[in-house]
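thread: overnight batch results

M.L. [08:02]
morning all. the overnight job finished for the chain we discussed friday. pasting input first so we're all looking at the same thing
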Amino acid sequence: NVPANWDLPTLLKVCKGTGISAVECRTTHKHGVEPKLTADQRKDVKEQFADSGVVFWGCGSVCEFHAADPAVVKKNIEDCKAFVSLVHDIGGTGVKVRPNGLPKGGDEQKTFEQIGKALQECGKAAADMGVEIWVEVHGPVTQIPKNMKTIMEACGHKSVGVTWNSNPTDVENKSVRASFELLKPWIKSCHINDLANDANGKYPYRELFKLLRESGYDRYTLCEVGKSYEVAEGTEFLKGYKKLWDELVKG
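M.L. [08:03]
and the structure it wrote out:
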């Protein structure tokens, strides 16, 4: 969200200058990395990332599969497949999707099963293109780790994992260990937010980073904060964020 209003060259320049290694391109943001891109435009985006030295990690879509209407679910599956094709063409690793809660009056277990089966279809399409699906631990009810575990078990596809999302619902007795252990087999990506929350006791990032290290996680932790910045202010924010991240990584 920090660079939501920056074009792609600006985004890549700032990331390179501040030591940010990779980008998940969130849909609707000004960078314009969207399924509507032509083959030539996709090639250009791929070259811009390669020239910058910044990794194109993948796309942050808003595809979701919990709706009561099967036609809506099917549309989201097709949208996800379009993002899979885009990520493949640009040379990324995965597509972030999400549940966003439950339909009003919906049965929890049936909805979890429905989400899992939709993800299975997305996973098959992703596997065919050498891409992954990352299910953001997101939404009322669905973000509770034991419920996301149920969804992932209903899916059961090797190309589908989760994006750990650093939610307050992860924390039990000031620790995320129990939640982490539930989802550890599926963690393929990770969102982090206000790292100052470690010092103020709101979220134990130092423990999370330790758990990621112990699990063998060797991927990215992606800065996801709510505020968007102009370029100069955003650059300074990211410099400070990277410094705090470096300190937390040391343990």
